[in-house]
Amino acid sequence: MVKFAIIPTLSVMLRKTILLLFTLFCAELVIAQEAWTLQKCIDYAFQQNIQIKQAELGLQSSEVNRMQTRASTLPTVNGSVSHGYNWGQTIDPFTNSFATERIRSNSVGVNSSLLLFNGFQQMNSLQQVDIDRDARAQDLERVKNDIALNVANAFLNVLFTEEFEKIARANFDNTAEQVERMKKLVDAGSVARGSLYDIEAQMASDEAGVIAAENNVILAYLALTQLLQMPSEEADNFKIAAPDATEIDKIQLVANPDVVAQAALNNFPQIKSAELDVLFARKSLSIAQGTRSPRLSVSFSYGTGYSGANAIATDSLNLGYLPVGQVAGSGDLVTTLNEQIFPSNFVTKSLGDQLSDNVNRSLFFTMSIPIFNGFNSKASVQRAKIGIQNAELILENNRNILDQSVQRAYADAQASLRNFRASEKSVTAAQEALDYAKVRYEAGASNSVEYTAARVRLDNARADLIRNKYDYLFKTKVVDFYLGQPITFN
Question: CB–CB of 95/307 below 8 Å?
Answer without folding.
Answer: yes
